């Protein structure tokens, strides 16, 4: 039997192509989830942490009194014993424009020699109004050394091209002169800046940490002081935490994909063993027992599982490499978590062997005489055992209960959701014969009156309920997985975007800088330009004035009107008259603190709607404050379509720019844009992988129709003899293919919507157990779903062509003679 299995694999490899592809997809999906996210996370982490990679220590102030400046921090750290050199790492996001093209870039001030993390490929380091670009950014803008780019209305000369090769997901790094950056944008917020430190030879990290902490105590400044390696590791982890969340989401889908693979492989083995029915009968007649034949088939399955699993990991590596070539992360190296890959291969081997057990038992249970007879439809195919009803019902009901319980399980939500989803999927898939024939009969009633061919198709499609159910199940799985991914990704996008909007509810804010007379007011021409920018949804002007509180000199306070509150759902509906809205993690105010302004005592309430540039009070309170009122001192903008982020930011900068910008620009639009880019790339890559699963499922449709043509050769011959034309035979098989496809696709869409929502909900529950509060939002892209159904219908028509030709070209006399 071992030799028999080896001969089958050696001399008939073409028979196993569909099975190998099904295994490779199942394993590849799981492996790709780990390899892609690990590769992208590694690249982004290295890129973001690069400015700190050459530091011996990194100092990050966590608490500082008002009035302490960046210069004082630098001086205090530099005076500590054992410190050779220190300086802050200053970065900001800018938009660069040249030759009609615009790109967002992360500009970092070039530090002193000990802290420099990259080299020049061409040119020189920037001085004054100059900038050094990475090669991809320079190519995108079409500039080289000596050319110019504009940023915020300021012209910058390209002084050099660095050797950095950034990831597309990690931003576009650029190098600028420290003095120019500070002069253009001012000192960065103290508590959002970190200082890199180089130590004297012989000074240990512990000694320097103690000395620096003591030096900062004199300024009443508290700080986190860690080694450069620790800071880089932490910064990379914080930056890539979102991508790791997507990994967990993909692993939820991968667990479902394994179930999908199990049933798809079982269906493929059924078709494969049906084609070997006569061979199995001959082996039985010469003395092979049913157990020996089963063991031989299981051995074939084991070899196929191992080979398919290895091919799946190779496919996952290739897909991750292609993604890395697009994003640029491949330059940082392809990261393969071998433990995850080994688990995926092992699971692929296990599910392949499990998947072939039932088909092997069915194929070897028949007597040698039955196996040598021509293939006919099984008259017992319509029977469903009571055991299947009970087992599938328990799996479905129990799995659904576990899924619902996972919604409130906190830290265990992800594990429970995966287990419950697998139980539900098994109940639906193994129980397909309990409901698919009924659905096919219902669909058949819709086409019976379309002619004799359609009427015959409606009857034929349920002649073998087991095979029809298996074929519909394969389609159901392929479509269900794609819809699961689409719903999960769309729901995650909506959920994370809502979280960002609640954390940073204003897409863009344009706040006037003081002019020559000290007034902070935006000219009407600027407000008009902001209103007319393509991509801006709403532009709400706001009146503001300066507080006269001694502890908050020059602080801008604005009127929180209903128009402001209605900008986005993440904004509070109003501010009570006795309160003042201050930002979260304010330097000097916290919720519950009281301040006295203009004879009024106001209680501070922390909200992400406010920022360090402006506080909010109610319109009634605003009217009672003293001081000159400027209208508008700020304009708040919404950008509904994040794909227009760069063009909107560019237009806003042009409206308020110049050598001396008249306003500051802030908001959450960049974060939203980045998340959308990451999601689009990851979802696109995995959808491409799942498209192959659809092809396999449609091949199953063709196989089912081919077997149907073989089994119904006698009946088709009689139909031809009674006057059925070849065109009607082809139409009959086309209608059968469409009925099978539509039923499988519709069930797949319904199941996919549920699993996608469950996957997103369980991931958010897992994240919520770690202290990140997010509200799940269900989302479905109906356009993509309808396009998928349309493609399925078209592909079903193509799958029916070859079986239709076979059934239509045989003459009645030949077909009757063969039978």
Give a structural overview.
The protein has 819 residues and is α+β, with helices and mostly antiparallel strands. Among the domains are: 49-239, no CATH class; 453-503 and 668-819, no CATH class; 505-666, no CATH class. 57% of the residues lie in helices and 14% in strands. The protein has 27 helices and 20 strands. The strands form 4 sheets. Strands 3, 4, 5, 6, 7, 8 and 9 form a 7-stranded mixed beta sheet that branches. It starts with a helix and ends with a helix. The model has no long low-confidence stretch (mean pLDDT 79).
Distance between the termini: 33 Å
Unreliable stretches: none
Helix content: 55-70%
Radius of gyration: 33 Å
Quote the beta fraction: 5-15%
Shape: elongated
Number of helices: 27
The counted number of beta strands is 20
- Class computed from helices, strands and strand pairing: alpha+beta
Mean pLDDT: 79
The largest β sheet comes out as: 7 strands, mixed
In short:
The chain is an alpha+beta fold and 819 residues long.
Secondary structure elements and their pairing?
Layout: H1 2-11, H2 17-49, E1 57-63, H3 70-79, E2 83-89, E3 91-98, E4 101-109, E5 120-123, E6 130-133, H4 135-141, E7 148-151, E8 154-162, E9 173-176, H5 178-185, E10 194-199, H6 205-217, E11 222-227, H7 228-239, H8 241-275, H9 277-285, H10 290-327, H11 338-365, H12 368-372, H13 386-406, H14 413-430, H15 432-447, H16 452-460, H17 465-503, E12 508-512, H18 524-531, E13 539-546, E14 556-559, H19 562-565, E15 579-582, E16 594-597, E17 600-606, E18 615-617, H20 619-624, E19 630-637, H21 645-656, E20 663-666, H22 669-711, H23 713-721, H24 726-768, H25 782-799, H26 801-809, H27 812-818
Parallel strand pairs: 4-9, 6-8, 14-18, 15-17
Antiparallel strand pairs: 1-10, 1-11, 2-10, 3-4, 5-8, 6-9, 7-8, 12-19, 12-20, 13-14, 13-19, 16-17
